[in-house]
Amino acid sequence: MKILRIFYRFMTITYLYISNKINYNPKLETRVLNTAILNFAPSLKLHHIVLLSNKKNNIYTLDFSPLNQSHPTTLLKLLFGQNVPAEIRIRHLYNISFYDDYNIINSWCTLNNVNYIESQKLSDNTIKKINKFTDYKLYKLIYHIYKTNNTMNLYNYNCQHFSSRVLNSINSSYIL
């Protein structure tokens, strides 16, 4: 029995060593950053942004937000539990520490101060920059998340559900 445990450990270490040599970015740091959901109530930090980093100072953000989120019709539909169209926003932040919340939030807010069409272009360009050759696993993961159903419901599928799903996808598909 002891020989089997030793053999199992040896095989596990060998597998991890080989996979880390093949994968250019063997570690993907992840965390969820809580941000304000409303501009007039900055202390109400209910919005989740998923942060991914495959290198130091190279951060990708993923979040889930309704289209026309400040429009009264959208707000009423959300409040009454109806589905509204939403978007997955993917952004690339440069030269910011992974744990510098203040600068991450400021950069993220600046990048997201655009309309839906420009936001979609930003997300598409971010995915293209990652491309299959730079980091295939990260590209595949983000592309898969980006191409999913984009309907939000405040009670059944909101940004917090989205962040949980993203983290589960990462844990099941990416070697940490």
Give the terminus-to-terminus CA distance. 28 Å
Instruction: Characterize the biggest β-sheet.
Output: 5 strands, antiparallel
> Mean of residue pLDDT?
79
Helix content: 40-55%
- Helix run count: 6
Adjacency order of strands in the biggest sheet: 1-2-3-4-5
The number of strands is: 5
SSE sequence, one letter per element: HEEEHEHHHEH
Shape: globular
CA radius of gyration: 19 Å
Count of spatially separate domains: 1
Percent strand equals 15-25%
Low-pLDDT segments, ≥5 res: 10-25
Specify the structural class: alpha+beta
What's this entry about, in short?
This protein is α+β, with helices and mostly antiparallel strands and 176 residues long. It contains six helices and five strands, in the order αβββαβαααβα.
List the helices and strands and how they pair.
Elements: H1 2-22, E1 29-35, E2 47-55, E3 58-66, H2 72-79, E4 84-94, H3 101-111, H4 116-134, H5 136-146, E5 151-152, H6 159-173
Antiparallel strand pairs: 1-2, 2-3, 3-4, 4-5
Helix pairs in contact: 4-5
Descriptive report:
- This protein is α+β, with helices and mostly antiparallel strands and 176 residues long.
- The protein has one domain (27-173).
- Helices cover 48% and strands 22% of the residues.
- It has a five-stranded antiparallel sheet, with helices on both faces.
- Strand 2 (47-55) and strand 3 (58-66) form a beta hairpin.
- Helix 4 packs antiparallel against helix 5.
- The relative contact order is 0.16.
Features:
single chain; alpha+beta; 22% strand; 5 strands; five-stranded antiparallel beta sheet; 176 residues
